[in-house]
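Notes continue from the previous slide.

Worked example: a multi-chain complex. Inputs as given:
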Amino acid sequence: MSEKHETHFWFYLIGTAISIIALVPFLWMISTSFKSNGALLALPIEWIPKKPTFESYSKLFQLSGFLSSSFNSLFVAVLSVSVGLLSASAAAFAFAKLRFKGKDLLFMVFIASLMIPSQVSFIPLYLIMNNLRLTNKLIALVVPCVFKAFAVFMLRQQIMSIPDAYMDAASLDGASLGKTFFRIILPMCRTSLVTLAIILFMDSWNDYLLPLVLMTSKEHFTLPILLNSLSGEFKTSFNLLMAGSLLSMIPILIVYVCSQKYFSNGLQVGGIKG
Amino acid sequence: MNFGNEKMIDSGRRGWRRALPFLLPSLIGMVLFAYLPILISLFLSFTSWSGISRISLTHGFFKFVHENFLGLQNYQEIIRSSEFWTVLSHNFYFIVLYLPLMLVFSLTCAVIINSKTKGSGIYRVIFYIPVLTSWVAAALIWKWFLSFEYGPINNILSFFGIEGPLWLQSETLAMPSIVLASVWKDMGFYGMIFYGGLKGIDPTYYEAAQIDGASRKQLFFKVTLPMLSSVTFYVVMLSLINAFQLFPQVMVMAKDAGPNGATQVMVERIYKYAFRFGKMGYATAYSWILFVIIFFFTFIQKRIEKRWVNYDV
């Protein structure tokens, strides 16, 4: 009995210690974002601002780029998720349920592409987008989502577990392949689709390298790129930068809290892509 | 799908005709955004392209090749430059510091989440929050957190009478600072992978060991750790591969790669050569070297995974 209590004690102690490590930087961010310019540079530092203000938040919204880049990020993320899921689930359906020559080989080619790191292909991607005249168009950030190999892989597993009887029944009722896919297969993949939607949303919302390279004019910045450029412009206004960082996290936190149960099972798969 | 008599026809042209509409978007995407870029960058790595002149296949492609072709010169130049080896050593320095810290922290996170004591669910949520944050936001937070005068860390240190260091502005501590931020950000992510591994361990192993009178410490080192070997291997390899792709934290936390270039790393160099210094050809050669290194680790992983690892989970 006493041994059990002792282990519990250690779990709480270490768990709480790591929680503090995980959270203190965020608390410091929140605290800083409510400081006035004067309080920001007060010594000794104010752990909790003595006179909290919304100064930096209102300043942030007055900056020309902030609202527009938030909309850009949302636009790109929502479109990326839709395009990515639709394209990947269609391919997964073909790989799982249709019969065609060279299927296994093609699937291996799909999966092998996971070994190509995006850090290696971003220069030619810039060149391709430039040739398609898509640089400084938000669509350029959406288009590459048409190919998501790990999503195809994950959805294929899921679709293979659906018994063929469902499809036979549909074809007996005269449903076309497309109809079978949209009406029967997709609804049965709900869990994987939601998990993948979260992964794709996070990837897109937090992406840095590709928008940094492809979006060079301010009106096309996504949030991370705007924050990056603000950090050069307002080097010392950390209250402003912390307010921006905090606001940029909110959509992800909302998604995270609303989808707790999906987070425990499928998310590691997405991590493979980094 | 079982359409009985269609079996024979399905594998022929008809099979493709049915599958193609479903495959086409992904197929085009794969060619255009996965394999073509690798080939283009291989081609560019043999040229002196600056990135300014337009390259077009239909207009003056051969003239371009004629004027810009260098052969292996970019690669030779990179390998011979001392900068490349310094940059590579920075990547390795990052890994050497990062890996042990990350393993200890993420394994601890996993054990705590898996302990099923009251509140472990809340810990799970908390440990994962840094993972959700974009690197730009996280890097800004840490830059401010490590500020020499106004940062909490140095203020706590000064409370104990220690004068805090310059962190990101110091040549020796810039990289360790980036490691700290990276461990903080990644521990929840790898923790969840370890947690998956812990969940998979058959409880009968513990029961058997307990009957034999094993202590808790023995249970952990003699049962848990060996049973986690495959997951640990996966985590080490994944983090190695990710460590070579280290980039946003370096860009945001240490502007212009830190004091005296102390935090110059591979991807940062590639980005700067391509988009700041106008040496696209040189940059793509750099990126191909990176590709080979990453590919090497992926290959090793696939190879060794089969032999060395305890799959008895």
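Summary box: Chain A touches chain B through 103 residues (CB under 8 Å). Residues 65-271 of chain A form a domain with the MetI-like fold fold (CATH 1.10.3720.10).
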